[in-house]
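Quick one - inputs below.
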Amino acid sequence: MLLGAIEAGGTKFVLGVGNEAGEILDKLTIPTEHPEITVPKIIAFFEDKGIERLGLGGFGPIDINKNSDTYGKLQKTPKVDWVDYPLGDVLKDTLGVPVVIDTDVNVAAMSEAKWGNAKDVDTCLYITVGTGIGAGAYFHGQTLKGLSHPEMGHIKVQRHPDDTYRGTCPYHSDCLEGIAAGPSLEKRWGKKGHELADDAKVWEMEAYYLAQALTNYIYILSPERIIMGGGVMKQAQLFPLIRKNVLEMLNGYVSSPYLTEKEIDQYIVPPGLTDEAGVKGALYLAIHG
Amino acid sequence: MLLGAIEAGGTKFVLGVGNEAGEILDKLTIPTEHPEITVPKIIAFFEDKGIERLGLGGFGPIDINKNSDTYGKLQKTPKVDWVDYPLGDVLKDTLGVPVVIDTDVNVAAMSEAKWGNAKDVDTCLYITVGTGIGAGAYFHGQTLKGLSHPEMGHIKVQRHPDDTYRGTCPYHSDCLEGIAAGPSLEKRWGKKGHELADDAKVWEMEAYYLAQALTNYIYILSPERIIMGGGVMKQAQLFPLIRKNVLEMLNGYVSSPYLTEKEIDQYIVPPGLTDEAGVKGALYLAIHG
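Output:
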């Protein structure tokens, strides 16, 4: 059986055709433009491929509740062209196949749990730190969702005492995303992240915020592994700083060999999958979702 | 088939015998003393009852990982007599039946999801605010656990601008439990919670902290209902204050009819089950765990 997979991102869509063994057999990357331009390209790619189901991991907010009338509809995303666009229904109706939808970060968590750096455990958290901050969680065979999908990037954090930057989030100003995503780094320090690579205080502050978030995620979710990806995490010096801050913040409260100086570098890790993570996760969704 | 159920709390143990329909047929409450006193009473209650399995919802930290060598062992609980006590193994070996273990708050979440105020949804969070603060989550048939069980009471929160109290948590000083559990109320204001019932500023500050926690839980877990129990929540004036603060903090970011002024009183609610919640949840654990 052939299956379709879509990784719908803010800057690009990755389209794939694969099989039940999880192999991607054909792939195409297209830019994210207005739906009137992007969607016909998606249809054109899939329409003669003979797929029987389609999995889609999408940027959000997106309705992922299968029982909802607006399943697969984009919600009030900052990408204004896509607000209220019924992506799921359009694909289902045009291609004539069932479409299974989850968030991009939930799909990435599932992909890492199946084929990546969490394949030896039953639970994991995937967090991306880039233009925005988002996270998805995989627990014992399913991704975490309920009322809606999690929006973990918008949690409240304590301000760093040296930070006077007011934050970029239009909803909450200085939530985690508002003070620790890529755009806030650039606005606070006046340069892009990669131009700040040698400035220690930049990464100490960034690690302080990200470690607070991870500490809360550990207390609330207790994942067996945390995978950190996204553009900002290409600054590899962040990993040891974040790990050190997490251990200090937990202060020995949670008993686990992973949460010790010796093993925390096996607990907070970069992704194991690179370019195909999203589209492979969407393929998994098509198979099992 | 007869099944045993234990709600192991910090001040009392509730012991029950029930059936697969979820009915409690026999019950006994005993105080939580030294294990050498309490455990023989538990054995005496169950040994002639003919139970085939036993479920236990216990205070923590407790090892709830079924694959662990120390499954069912108490960890570094503030109840020093119980530290490292292998409660699960003692009951299994003495009574000769399988023992299924989860935390008291996970069991309460499951119980509310099956028989209480979350029986119409598939996911819920149960939080208790009393001597300590703990929470458990139920998602699509299972309670949330991974590396260990969640310890949601220990998350970081932003200080209220008028609060100079340094906090009671021996691990983190001013984590949520350290500044919002019953003992911190008493130490900050010099009186017990129920003696402060008419002092508006007490409950405004308390609601500010609890609403921060709920806001983070909503962003991270997205439960379909939040149930708030425990001694501090007997101050019913907290509910409208917490609901109002949660809506202000979310600021419309999460799309759901529940997260509106009109419906939030159906989203953040008191428990539906009273005295038998813990022991009924433990019975459910014995049946399905």
